[in-house]
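Let's practice the habit of predicting before peeking. Look at the sequence and jot down your guess about where helices and strands might fall. Then scroll down.
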Amino acid sequence: MLCIISFMVTIGCWMSFGPKSDHFGTDLFGQAQLREVTLQEENAAYEKAISNCDNKIHEKLKEADLFRTKLQEMDLTEKNLKDKLENALAAFHARQSGKLGELSIDSETTVEAQDVIEASKSDVLDKLENKKQELSLMEEMVEVLEKKWAQVQENALKQPSPGNEDGLGKWIGCEYTVDMENMRNCPNVMQFSSAQREKILDRQLHSLIEQLATKQAQAEGLVSEIHLKEMELERLNGLWRSLETSTAEFNAARNRFGRSNSEKGSLSSDYIVDPHHRPSYHLGGRTENLMLLRSAFVLYILALHILVFIRISF
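Done guessing? Here is the structure:
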């Protein structure tokens, strides 16, 4: 539209000057056509660059949504693991409340293992919280980038080409002034203002491209961190399964130890009734030794599990 107005103003200037300025009007018309072709090419290039930046912004928004869904899934997994761990610890404490005096060594090792698990769990929770904060900061930066890009598009719509109102005013001034030197200087003024605007748009485009590259690098780092956290959660799940296995073995050993104590009490009462009945005493002692040996073996295996768990944790 501005090019058509410029063309009409040029025709008016040419008609106002009459046949004496026919040669100059022809040159001016040729310059206007050449400038129109140049402006159309520049507008096409800027539209292409703007569409590329729009595509990149949409891709980054999709990646941010994907990261948000992954983070929500990790939050659900973390919540489920916390619930399972709290239930298991509550059940374990309830089972150990009556036998704390008899099996103090085993309870101490179990408490140490629980402390290690709690420490690792708190570390994972802190890291996840940090990642949440980083993701929120990234979302804020993306919003700021979108606002800047909307402002750039608005400026581009307001000033689509160098032939804006200032240039139009200068061409209209040429219509009402008869000074030939001022008319020759009008295209130079328009070229100077368009060069400035082109430089500003180029700077804004380069800054947007650099910001997009930075955001892409940050997104890749966030993906790698999320992958590491997933691996750490899998490791904690394995440790939790090993702790459940060790707890089951510990319960079996405790049950066997309780049965051995009951058998020991019955045998001692028989010995009091009949003190000369030596074979029963020897049988009870051998059974007690066998049970103690089994309990010691189970405790040894449990201690090995706990040592392996501590070694893996550190």
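How did you do? The CA atoms of residues 188 and 294 lie 101 Å apart.
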